[in-house]
Amino acid sequence: MPEKEGRDTADMILFFDRLFDSVNGYTLKPEKSLRVVVSHDSPHSSFWGRAAKRLRRMRFVDPTDKKPLKESVILKNWISTIEGFRRLWKVLRIYKFKYFKPRILNQDSLANFFGQIRSLGERNVKPTCSEFESSFKMLLLGNLASGCTEKDNSENKTDGPLLFTLKEFISFKVSCMNNDTVTENLMLDLEMTSSDATENNDSMFSSITERILNNSHVGECEVCKNLISDSAKSELAPSKCLLKVLEDADNILAQRMSSVCYLHHTALMLETELYMSLDLRWLNCQQHRNVLKELVVSYTVVFYISKWCNGINEILMGKEDMSL
Question: Is the full-model pTM beyond 0.85?
């Protein structure tokens, strides 16, 4: 390549690199001069003015006869984008904004999302509503694992976790209904769901109690037995204190699970959360205090993870479990 053409090519690449940076700033600490939030002392305004003028002078050439084309939608849209940013920043300054992040206005995330929808299973560029819903659920369960579609022109950058709460996705809210029959049926369904969830929890709590009592140290200690089980009801019935702890733990883990389920050492993080949140001072056996605390917390986490995974499996099988 001749030296002049090489310099021209390098200059053009640098220009578009800086232009891309100027509309993708998202941090207060600049990665590059223009890859930063727009503020009163940032170089964006002056650069955008020069960039718009330069884009107006640009022309694409016909690949056959090498003649300049009259207009290009790409260049026209770039100019429109730049002018839009400039006007937006003027308005924001009127309302005393100190800065704004251009990146939040781009559509890369939306393009990535629809690209992944189309890429699931067979190449389906026109999914039906039902197919779209199924693909959406799969992406939620997979936590949008791939950052972007392959061979696309959008940036592989995420600004935070993308895990959604499955319970919120499958739940629904009943608004005002005039049909008494429909309302009664819905209330009956909710009562049955609540009853099933209670039975499942009772079974899980009894299993946790049994596992704790099966420990060689605890099973031979009368003090531990009295702390863990309610002998008046059954040897496997949890005591009032243990039942209260297990119910509190179930609520705590339900709120925490969706934010850690895709990370390493999930069980360890959940155990740490329970140690910090639960009141375990009632486990006051002088000989086995620490062992009891460890058993209660560890078995609670193990059984909850199993319950949560079963709920996910039911969702995948088309059974909506509202107790997640």
Answer: no
